[in-house]
TrEMBL record:
InterPro entries: AB_hydrolase_1 (IPR000073), AB_hydrolase_fold (IPR029058), Epox_hydrolase-like (IPR000639). SUPFAM superfamilies: alpha/beta-Hydrolases. Pfam families: Abhydrolase_1. Keywords: Hydrolase. The keyword Ribonucleoprotein does not apply. One of its GO terms (molecular function) is hydrolase activity. Residues 27-259 form the AB hydrolase-1 domain. This is Alpha/beta hydrolase. The keyword Hydrolase applies.
Length: 272
């Protein structure tokens, strides 16, 4: 087994990913959520890397991937990056693990190329969101709109944002704050986020979700304030081959808050 960070150019964008190689083992592809990165899987990777072939991706413009000013930041294009990376690494029948927005992008990837993915794990996955309203899309074309995004995020602050996504605030330490803050020290991310606001489609509809037949495992925090539990329950109803697990005293950031439970459930589901 070896582990090493890599950069690959995919669709004209430099993509950062970590590859924990375990030849012959089932492959898990880990997809993070909005304003996050592969850092969010730091606690479950050590628990899974001996049993699985692991790939953790930083979707653009997040983490250490390129903050391109030309890439079209649609969910479909992000899904295509996952597909292309899997193909470049000669990975077949992978299991996608997506947190928050990463869950929705995982579903897009399955819709785009179902034969490449045999299962999906959705951790507090976003769902049923509409595309950005026309007024916001119009505003994104205004010069220096990115400075508004920067000010808004700075006003929230990394500590307040983390308090919103965890149930137990005592979990927040300096390492956690530094890890989630690091990508935002590069000002180019704010211009890229402006494009994401402009390009993001709505989430997949109920009708489309009902056509996704791959087995899916849903894990939700009962105290999730970002994607409430009722969203998970609705998603469970729409995905025809899904199982649903709820974690008490847990918020939105389930890979950080309850890594032992999450990794055990992922392992059992993946090896069935």
């Amino acid at each position: 087994m070896s582990t090493k960070p890599f950069i690959k150019s995919i669709q004209g964008v430099e993509i950062y990913y970590e590859y924990y190689k375990n030849p012959g083992k089932t492959t898990l592809i880990l997809i993070h959520g909005f304003l996050s990165s592969s850092f969010c899987y730091r606690k479950i990777i050590p628990l899974l890397k001996d049993e699985f072939n692991l790939v953790a991706i930083d979707l653009p413009p997040f983490g250490q991937s390129e903050k391109s000013r030309t890439f079209v930041y649609s969910y479909r294009n992000m899904a295509k990056i996952i597909i292309k990376l899997a193909e470049l690494l000669n990975i077949h029948e992978a299991i996608l693990v997506g947190h928050s927005m990463g869950g929705q992008i995982s579903l897009y990837a399955i819709k785009e190329k179902p034969e490449l993915f045999k299962k999906v794990v959705l951790l507090c996955s976003s769902a049923y969101l509409k595309k950005s309203p026309p007024s916001l899309i119009f505003g994104s074309h205004i010069p220096y709109f990115y400075l508004y995004i920067k000010r808004w995020l700075a006003k929230q602050g990394v500590l307040e944002n983390l308090r919103n996504v965890v149930y137990n605030a005592s979990l927040i330490d300096q390492e956690m704050m530094n890890g989630y803050l690091k990508p935002f020290l590069d000002d180019r991310i704010f211009k890229a986020l402006t494009r994401l606001i402009r390009h993001r489609e709505g989430d997949l509809s109920s009708d489309v979700l009902k056509e996704i037949e791959v087995p899916s495992l849903l894990i939700w925090g009962e105290e999730d304030r970002i994607v409430p539990l009722q969203i998970g329950e609705r998603l469970h109803q729409d995905l025809p081959n899904s199982t649903f697990n709820v974690l008490k005293q847990t918020g939105h950031l389930v890979p950080e808050e309850n890594p032992d439970f999450v990794s055990d459930k992922i392992a059992n589901f993946s090896l069935m």
